[in-house]
Design a protein that fits this description.
The chain is α+β, with helices and mostly antiparallel strands. Helices cover 27% and strands 30% of the residues. The chain has nine helices and 17 strands. The strands form two sheets. Strands 8, 9, 10, 11, 12, 13, 14, 15 and 16 form a nine-stranded mixed beta sheet that branches. Helix 6 crosses helix 8. The longest helix is centred in the C-terminal third of the chain and has 16 residues. 4'-deoxy-4'-aminopyridoxal-5'-phosphate binds next to helix 6.
Length: 338
């Protein structure tokens, strides 16, 4: 199967949710002068919902952690948030009810776009949630190249802030990697140590156990890595967060990338250095998927049910007559302030 990370955004679902209202996907609007566009001011999250093994429960993984990270990203960029966790969750549920397919999982992308304000004054943002279906099959292992592009340091563009601007360099790295024949890229930090992949964190395994760089090495504070750490310790596998040098990466026995959408995708090769596909990371990957399909609560993974079909039957509610574009943008104010 191709990598879902690159396919999900190419879908055009019928609905999006804008400030809590269902809006036809093609009708969602943003003004050309919104700071989301002029100064790249948007923060976002990527959550995944899974059907349980029995097919009776569709649950989203760790939504509160994602909500809190969205709030933290917004606060660090001085973007006010005017919705609660309960409203955030209700929005995910509404959209899931309209877009869910019993044979596919879903990836949710809540994005907070700055639609009003000017250089920090009068800032307002719209919360737009889009959802994309995901095949249940395992993604293929990946071949990666170390990019010539680097993750920016915390004092320039903090990787802890999940904002669109952080993906400008990630995009350049991916384009470079694809040009060289790889599936994706790994970025080093300013010190030349491993930071992360373009949309996932990096794990290696060697005789000492599993290791991943801490957030202070310029990677996102990954929710998936936290779940994998718990799962690894539960399996009796040592798991460490420590800086990883480039040569340590290249000489590791195993390598993988971890993120909500990547789950734990195994890496076959980085820059011509090859990794085993049958070691602890492959065991961990299997365990992670079992946890996501309903076994997670035993390890304290927060799987919040959004849709139930106890008798195996479920159909989407009637679609509303969505007339509005749902946005809070005051276009007259934007034209005046751009
Ligand atoms: N790093 C980057 C740059 C990412 O985009 C992601 C995906 N959100 C991750 C790491 C993994 O984070 P998480 O496990 O919370 O999805």
């Amino acid at each position: 199967m191709a990598h879902t990370a690159s396919l999900s955004q190419l879908q055009k679902p019928p609905w999006a949710l804008v400030n809590g209202q269902l809006v036809r996907y093609e009708d969602v609007r943003i003004h050309i002068s919104a700071e989301a566009l002029t100064r790249a001011l948007s923060v976002f999250e990527g959550l995944k919902g899974y059907w349980s093994q029995s097919g009776e429960v569709f649950a989203v993984r760790e939504p509160r952690r994602h909500f809190e990270r969205l709030c933290r990203s917004a606060a660090l960029l001085q973007i006010p948030i005017d919705f609660t966790y309960e409203e955030f969750l209700a929005g995910l549920r509404t959209l899931a009810e309209h877009l869910l397919d019993p044979d596919r999982d879903l990836w949710f992308r809540p994005t907070l776009y700055v639609t009003q304000g000017h250089w920090g004054e009068g800032t307002r943002a719209d919360l737009v949630v889009t959802e994309f279906s995901q095949q249940k099959d395992d993604p293929d292992p990946m071949r990666l190249g170390v990019s010539t592009w680097r993750r920016s340091p915390d004092v320039a563009l903090p990787s802890r802030v999940k904002c669109s601007a952080n993906y400008v360099v990630a995009r350049l790295a991916r384009i470079e990697a694809r040009r060289l024949g790889y599936d994706d890229a790994l970025l080093l930090n300013d010190f030349g140590r491993v930071a992360e992949a373009t949309g996932a964190c990096v794990l290696i395994a060697d005789r000492r156990g599993i290791a991943t760089p801490p957030t202070s090495e310029c990677c996102l504070d990954s929710i998936t890595v936290d779940v994998l750490e718990r799962a690894a310790l539960d399996l009796g596998l040592p798991f460490e967060r420590r800086p990883i040098e480039r040569t340590e990466l290249l000489s590791a026995d195993e390598c993988g990338v971890a993120g909500t959408i990547s789950e734990l995708t195994l890496v076959t090769e980085v820059d011509g250095f090859h990794y085993s596909q049958a070691g602890v990371l492959s065991r961990l990957r299997q365990r992670y998927l079992e946890l996501m399909r309903g076994d997670g609560e035993r390890l304290g993974v927060d799987l919040v049910p959004l849709v139930l079909r106890p008798d195996g039957y479920w159909s989407a509610p009637d679609a509303p007559a969505a007339a509005s574009d749902g946005t809070s943008t005051d276009f007259a104010q934007l034209n005046a302030s751009a």
